[in-house]
Amino acid sequence: MDPIQAANELAFRVGFSGHSGHLRVEPLSTVERRNPLRSIPDFILPPAFPRETPESIKKYIEETYLHPRLDSDGFSPEKVGRQWEFDWFDRAEVPLEPSLPRTMVIPVWEPPFRRSNDGSVKEIWEPKFEEVDVSDLTSGAVESGSLPRPSGKDFVRGSISNRPFRPGGLDDSRSLERILPEGASNGEWVREILNGDPAQTIPPSLKQGLNLGMLKPYPCSWNVCKEANSLKSSSDENLSGLSVQFDDLFKKAWEDDAVGQQEEDGHLSDVETVMLEAEVGSSEVSSKARESEMSLDDILSSDSEGSKLHLDGFSNEIGQQKKEAWAMHEASKRIVDCFHELVPDMALEFPFELDAFQKEAIYYLEKGESVFVAAHTSAGKTVVAEYAFALASKHCTRAVYTAPIKTISNQKYRDFCGKFDVGLLTGDVSLRPEASCLIMTTEILRSMLYRGADIIRDIEWVIFDEVHYVNDVERGVVWEEVIIMLPRHINIVLLSATVPNTIEFADWIGRTKQKEIRVTGTTKRPVPLEHCLFYSGELYKICESETFMPQGLKAAKEVLRKKKLTSGGGSGPKSGISAGHDNARVQKRENTSRVKHHGANFSGTGRGYQNNGNGQNNWELRRKDASMWLMLINKLSKKSLLPVVIFCFSKNRCDKSADSMTGTDLTSSKEKSEIRLFCDKAFSRLKGSDRNLPQVVRVQNLLRRGIGVHHAGLLPIVKEAVEMLFCRGVIKVLFSTETFAMGVNAPARTVVFDTLRKFDGKEFRQLLPGEYTQMAGRAGRRGLDKIGTVILMCRDELPEESDLNHVIVGSATRLESQFRLTYIMILHLLRVEELKVEDMLKRSFAEFHAQKKLPEMQQMLKRKLDQPTKAIECIKGEPTIEEYYDLYSEAETYGNQISEAILQSPSAQQFLNTGRVVIVKSESAQDHLLGVVVKTPSPNNKLYIVFVIKPDMQSPVDNALSGSNLQNKSGAFDKGYFVMPKSRRGLVDEYNTSVSSRKGRGVINIKFPYGGSACGMGYEVREVDSKEFLCICSSKIKIEQVGLLEDVNSSVYSKTVQMLLDLKSDGNKYPPALDPVKDLKLRDAKLVVTYQKWAKLLEKMSQNQCHGCIKLEEHLKLAKEIKKHKEEVYALQFQMSDEALKQMPDFQGRIDVLKEIGCIDEDLVVQMKGRVACEMNSGEELICTECLFENQMDELEPEEAVALMSAFVFQQKNTSEPSLTPKLAEAKHRLYNTAMRLGELQERFNLHIDPAEYAQENLKFGLVEVVYEWAKGTPFADICELTDVPEGQIVRTIVRLDETCREFKNAAAIMGNSALCKKMEVASNAIKRDIVFAASLYITGV
User: Fold this and answer.
1) How far apart, in whole angstroms, are the C-alpha atoms of residue 1261 and residue 1230?
2) From start to end residue, where is composition biased (Low complexity) (predicted)?
3) How far from 398 is each of 425, 446, 463, CA to CA, in Å?
4) Using alpha carbons only, how large is the chain's radius of gyration in Å?
């Protein structure tokens, strides 16, 4: 390579650095100086050196760096012990570490079934290698980085001080924008070099740069040339691929010294301007096309916003175009047929033949891909979860199984305990968190992600069970949060019931995480179902094999008809009411009775049916109900259809139905013995008083007879005992609420629906098809039953066929986004640098379709921006047409408002009579039409008949065609098509001579619209609604209605046209209109103000210099086009911006609330108050935080504090009023006032919150007295007498209260309040005792 001459006789050269092909600047000692640098390192070559080639460079690198040896002169024996000072390095202070390479070679992991053994030793896998960009590895390190692993509890639960992991699926452009500072990406450093300035010594974003010592004072300049005849370009290149690299600028410097030869031959006289193309180095710019191409300066001078749009938009657009769909749904027969060849070494063997969808899912899991499995209940989705656990164990990683309900978590822990290394994490239980397979609720996983738990680094699989729970209004948002927050290295397994939009949901996940989601599953049930009606002691089949059979319903209706005839001719209620209407009324009465079932009413004399004095009626109803249940169970027992699950949609209904079966005994002596032994062992962990609780005694008596109840009101240990006994098959009849269908994997032979209506917390409604399918899916035990039976109970009436058809074979509920912003979500996200709250909103399922269209909108915006802009050339100097057009548009808007209001008023109707001149709105909205009212509305016709003139004259042929509709044709051309000048006409030719003066009969002989031409103008008679009038003119003309509508005389039409033209003869486009205030008596105050604004705008328009211009109309059209173009560009930019997000206004309001109460500052930095709020997961975070910072707990004892805190976690709305101590009553009042104040604050910042409703929803004081007595040591049996809340609800509230105490304790530690921290610890210990915290039977075993 030839040396480059620099200023001040300092020669240097550009050469290889020896590290990944980087360039370096090497000074050359060509001039002997007085104090030469004698200690220059040995990589500086002498001044005269041969031309470099790749071979010579390779040889030089090998000799200099790869073959190190001692310098024989410097390290001779006579110089032993001497020390050398390399002053050149001391002065230059050049770091000796080599620069980082751009790429690295890493091994590629392959699944076992894809590994090739060709050329390798047997059973030894030789991996392949690939070259990857270092930036990719760097971005990966951010999310699963090499930070030291902390020990202790933070490893699993995380800490509020930890930084959350970078969510997977974020755009690469975001990471580039974060890594590269503005100075490095805008190309300023390249421009300085090309302009001959010295290279920058301080890199962008750094405070100080390289200290070059003595080399610093010497300036240098660069002359960069390229061969003229080799410069080629294409103007069509996509500039989105633009890449400016330092190596690229000097690529030719070490090639066959083309530049030097050019200079020697004289082919290149002066320095050419370097033009950059879309891909530098792949194609070059032609010198002939320089004028039409974009130069480097043009590219680099683009503003930063454009660059950002270019980077974020179009690079993302290309990626999106390459990947249209992320959900892959391909049922491959090859996978099923060759499964064992594709997966020869399975991580887990199954003792049965796998179904097709299970094989597909396992194959994709082996490939390391995410999977979405959609199948019916009991179809075998758990096999996929088990295999993911096995893969995690095999790969020495971790897998997480999340469930929506704590019962599912406990049951799965018991099921997986014998197969895998399993741990359990719930709100109150933490078992073996160090295990490789963890089972937890989805809320726990969300907390771990937000708190940056270090265990996340080890997780390979996250399994979401019951994904259709995303439709839950209260908790569905948790699933979306977790899916968005998961890091890139975690694969996802989703298990769901069959839903209509599986592909859509999977596509959202894939697009969010930027990874393919394999969709598989089956719509086939492992055990087919048949659906029957039970009416009058008989079963009527209405559906089989997913096909509705109306014959069974008709047969049941025929029985009902005969029954009504025999009972006296249908004196009962009206037919056609759904099956559950009567039951709904019963449930409503039961819900208002609020009666608890203790031992006293076990014998069957429940008070719940004695309501409003109708004791006798309720008693009859109860007897009738009991006889129906006995009739049904006897029928099922004879047909061997037991065990049966009976779904009742009320806890009271379950208890009373079970209590009514007093004389029924369905168990054998052996089963009774098994039940007794199981119950004794299960309840032996309770102390004496707890074993004799009314509910425990009552349920044991039911269980011994083979009858069980299952609902949220049961104690957890009682509910688990019922579930386990049912799974053993000794319970024959189980009365349950719908939670049993989702929370317990316990299929039965038969499922019975007590009603098809339920109360959803707001109203009674029909069951949804998805809810029915979920519960009906419990019918049929795989491997035991050939068919499952589903029965609908019908009492006095039969349901309609349409209702049955919709519920049984209707489409399941679609997965819908329930995403909503919460304060704790906002505070957590404000701590994450890579993921803003706006990004979370964009990635929600609710915004999926809008974000999916983003590439298309980006392309459309690019086309709009590339369109040439039209300029308006004004002869009067600087154009003000934009201002004039704005005034014109605003005036037109006001005018339309006034016209619409006026034309509907009664006063305007008085003026709209025959002969009134009006202006009719044009269809093209360019030029409105002048017309006259010919006929007013009549009772038969509500429209006006108007004669209007049009500027476009029709041809005679067109007129003949339009006139062909006339009933009386007078020839090819009627009179009046060609009009002679008035001076040459005689009396006979006057317009009105041929018009008869007879009185019209009101007959209309033309077909609307009727058109023609006269006096050089086109005309048309049409029917017009009053809304189509633009304004009413002050003029009125005399018209011949008979000649226009009945006789259809052309001379009359000509005369009417001429009269209208005469009104325009004074130069105005339209005659003056009636004044809205003076003439039309406008009285509306708002309209009067609008009219005044309109008049002022007209005055401003008249003062504008464009007013009256000869080119005004042309310029207005241009201004309209320019304005429309700008509005379209703005609309596209708005739709692509964060402001277009649906929940953006709610987000802004919540941010203002957090600023107002001090959780964040003006720069959105989370303050200590915000960190405290992040700890509050159990209750409403704002109320809890304000309660702590107002020191409301300081004056309370631990028992009183924990009792008051129960208001945060208790859920039931309607309860009996508690009896509180004066101190607790005052604390309750103070806390309620705090909630009201926060509600009013949120309402002030435009959040849709009612303060009273906000306080009542988030503070429920129904168990304050109960918890206070429990914390003081009162037995559980005694506290149950203080309230009407079921025992199970009490236990669940106190268990959640323990978690709330831990959160308040952590918050107190952040605040530095040691007294409150100690108080929360004492309160937590006070409530942890006896039956409330009895260990789960699933965890400890029985």
Assistant:
1) 13
2) 608-617
3) 14, 17, 11
4) 43
